[in-house]
Design goal:
Elements lengths: L3 H5 L15 E2 L10 H13 L10 H20 L8 E4 L2 H16 L5 E5 L8 H10 L2 E5 L12 H4 L4 E7 L11 H11 L4 E5 L11 H4 L3 E5 L10 E5 L1 H6 L10 E4 L4 E3 L13 H17 L1 H19 L5 E4 L10 E6 L4 H10 L2 E2 L1 E3 L4 H6 L5 E5 L6 H18 L1
Parallel strand pairs: 1-13, 3-4, 3-5, 5-6, 6-7
Antiparallel strand pairs: 2-8, 7-8, 9-10, 11-12, 12-15, 14-15
The protein binds 4'-deoxy-4'-aminopyridoxal-5'-phosphate.
4'-deoxy-4'-aminopyridoxal-5'-phosphate binds next to helix 4.
Length: about 400
């Protein structure tokens, strides 16, 4: 039975008060806290078998290689990839997106082609396509949301044409919380346009709910390790093998080659041809431990807990006059991310007052400025939840926000 209070015991950072007060961490959409088994796995690599991978013919190097490749298999199983070779380790979702931009889009797309993205994208899945349109004359069309913050798939015909070579969208918005209907969108597009590549930014989905890349029918999926209990510095690109096979390497160097001669180089196989140089070995091993941890909890349970917290927070926050939440109101249609404004109070003032109570939230545009401009609003405050969030955390948020209201009223 899932119990956030039991889960919390695994997080060393939650055990130590800061300035005598407990830490109320409500910024997991930015990065998650790390549980003991993940910290132990990283420590174990550094204290017991530090060695480079793929090279040494000695025990600790063989163990490091094996555990690095095991992590790849764990990630593959976690997202239901068909084959572990479909998993490329990168630094983060941003680097995965840049890999697609450099090795696929810049190679394949030219003047006259079209890319469709959405207004709710994180900058890391917006700027590359905007720049591509400036550099190459590839049209970048933007699929807008409705007032509730939902994409309307009936609108797709307006955006997708025979010239659309890439459709990209986030699985879950890091501002609106909106969960997009991936399978429906993919099915609709592929029915009329099977060769259109569909790229999903799953940075806010993989940590929070069960997912199955094969079931989606999309072509490329990206996410980061640090939002799903793993360390910073490790990210994932999943893509179908034929797509990866046709993409040239993104960076050159050691490990991504099979043979190097004075005038010729033979590149390594997928996925190694995209992992040039010494990778973040400890990062991958830590991510493997994070996947084990989440799998033990069960992703259905993780999702149910977040739905419960989101519903509770909606009720609690609605008691504060002048506070408005953006995005869909139904917790079944959204992840555990709530962005809001308070009438007449700047979000930075909100965050500063909350910090006095150790309540950590994020304020600003959350790397989604076009979305804020679309809604014609300034920066917002954002609280986000995860497996260790409790109703008491949300009560602390509510009482600190009430304090903010009194101070600035
Ligand atoms: N996409 C989404 C939806 C995100 O929320 C984030 C992180 N805020 C990213 C991409 C980028 O992730 P990273 O900074 O780990 O590369």
């Amino acid at each position: 039975m899932f119990d956030a209070r039991t889960v919390r015991r695994d997080f060393p950072i939650l055990q130590k008060p800061i300035n005598g007060k407990p830490l109320i961490y409500l910024d997991s959409a930015a990065t998650s806290l790390k549980p003991r088994p993940v910290l132990d796995a990283i420590n174990d690599y550094y204290t017991r078998y530090t060695a480079n991978i793929n090279r040494g013919i000695y025990k600790i190097s063989e163990e490091a290689t094996e555990r690095y490749e095991q992590a790849r298999k764990k990630v593959a199983a976690f997202i239901h990839a068909k084959d572990a070779r479909e998993i490329v380790f990168t630094r983060n979702a941003t680097e995965s997106l840049n890999l697609v931009y450099y090795s696929w889009a810049k190679e394949q797309l030219s003047h006259g082609d079209e890319v469709v993205g959405t207004i709710m994208e994180h900058h890391s899945n917006f700027v590359p396509w905007q720049q591509l349109s400036k550099e190459r004359g590839v049209a970048f069309r933007i699929w807008n949301v409705d007032k509730r913050g939902l994409l309307d798939s009936h609108d797709l015909d307006k955006y997708i044409t025979r010239k659309t070579k890439l459709l990209t969208f986030t699985a879950v918005s890091n501002v609106l919380g909106t969960i997009n209907p991936i399978k429906n969108i993919v099915k609709k597009v592929k029915r009329v346009h099977p060769s259109c590549i569909i790229l999903i930014d799953a940075a806010q989905m993989v940590p929070h709910m069960p997912m199955n890349v094969q079931d989606w029918g999309a072509d490329v999926v990206v996410f980061s390790g640090h939002k799903m209990l793993g360390p910073t510095g490790i990210g994932v690109l999943w893509a179908k093998l034929d797509i990866l096979g046709n993409m040239p390497p993104y960076q050159y160097g050691g490990d991504m080659i099979k043979e190097v001669h004075v005038h010729e180089t033979v590149f390594n196989d997928v996925p190694h041809k995209f992992e040039a140089g010494t990778p973040d070995i400890a990062g991958a091993i830590g991510l493997g431990a994070a996947v084990d941890y989440l799998s033990r909890l069960g992703m259905e349970q993780v999702r149910n807990h977040e739905k419960e917290m989101t519903k509770y927070a909606f009720n609690a926050l609605s008691s504060i006059k002048g506070l408005s939440i953006i995005g869909p109101k139904d917790e079944k249609k959204r992840g555990g991310v709530i962005a809001f404004t308070m009438k007449g109070i700047h979000p930075h003032d909100i965050a500063q007052v909350l910090d006095e109570d150790n309540v950590c939230i994020r304020v600003g545009f959350h790397c989604a400025q076009p979305l804020h401009e679309f809604f014609n609003i300034g920066p917002t405050a954002r609280a986000s939840f995860y497996i260790y969030t409790t109703k008491e955390d949300i009560d602390s948020l509510t009482s600190s926000l009430t304090k903010v209201k009194k101070m600035f009223a």
